[in-house]
Amino acid sequence: MLKINLPPTPLIPIQLEPGSPTIWAKLEFLNPSGSAKDRIARHILMKAYRQGRLEPGDWVVEASSGSTAIALAMACAGMNLRFLAVLPEGASQERLLTIRAYGGEILTLPREAGMGAAVARAEEEARQRGGFATRQFENPDNCEAHQIFTAAEVLTQIPDGKVDAIVSGVGTGGTLVGLWQGCRQQNPACQPWACRPVTLSRELEIECCSFSARIPGVLDGFSSLYQPHKLPGLHQLEIEDRLALGTARRLIRRGFPVGPSSGLNFAAALLAAAELGDKAQIVTVFPDRMERYFSTELFNLEGDLAVAGSAPAGR
Ligand code: PMP
What we know:
With 315 residues, the chain is α/β, with parallel strands linked by helices. Helix 2 (67-78) links the parallel strand 3 and strand 4. The protein is 34% helix and 19% strand. The chain has helices at 37-50, 67-78, 93-101, 114-128, 140-157, 174-183, 241-253, 260-276, and strands at 11-14, 23-26, 59-63, 82-88, 105-109, 132-133, 165-169, 191-203, 206-211, 235-240, 282-285. Strands 1, 2, 7, 8, 9, 10 and 11 form a seven-stranded mixed β-sheet that branches. It has two domains: 11-32 and 141-299, Rossmann fold (3-Layer(aba) Sandwich); 37-133, Rossmann fold, CATH 3.40.50. The longest helix has 18 residues, at 140-157. The protein binds 4'-deoxy-4'-aminopyridoxal-5'-phosphate. 4'-deoxy-4'-aminopyridoxal-5'-phosphate binds next to helix 6.
């Protein structure tokens, strides 16, 4: 079994506009498979291997249409493991080809089945194949990976090793919870800030917000790892999805080749900075790369170029 250590990713102070706050961004898109999910893929597999729960040639199964499946497929290729991704149809051809290129197999379910059905089927497949279900939505090793690796890096990279707030969208919650757990060991006052993308619609002069699917990777209330009542000092922000996409485009123009959820995170971090003041050291994450989104709205450059720093949505 090949053990692959990940090199640290850079932590960069970014001031998007003159006079706007500086945000510390962890460039997780520079991980080998192109996303933060390399952290959890390597940690979960290596830990299971060390504990004797996984052996060369075994099946690894996960329900994911996104970065986690790609990261696991790559890690399994390097560790002599077989990989099966179970996902609702609709994932882009580029993603499916990437998983297959690493030797991964794909089982697609009807789109209407949703992620819940994919999770249940992944369990069943793991059981039938005598394999290992990585269970990113409930596996505490997901948070642990970010706590012992990502947060540890941040603490050596940021001035004075002090983080005042961690800002992140929540998919599994592993990034936000793990980073916060790690950073609060140095600064117990470190605050977790969760952000979620919303679509604003104005019909019949009633304004309503609904969770937006335009920012892939962040999901609505799906994970047992993200339990708001267990996060003291938690702030929850809603960010209009057009603002998230506009912010991602602005980051790309500044030379950061990021995907939509990085725009969400950065826009939310600016709001946190507006509340916490100039001296606060605010850390956010750029989870994945723009190349995964060529066929999506992010690259509809005729689209709305909403500016980071405009009014927050809702609440
Ligand atoms: N951004 C992207 C692109 C993602 O794929 C994910 C996770 N699926 C997230 C953000 C959220 O990360 P986490 O699962 O650690 O909450």
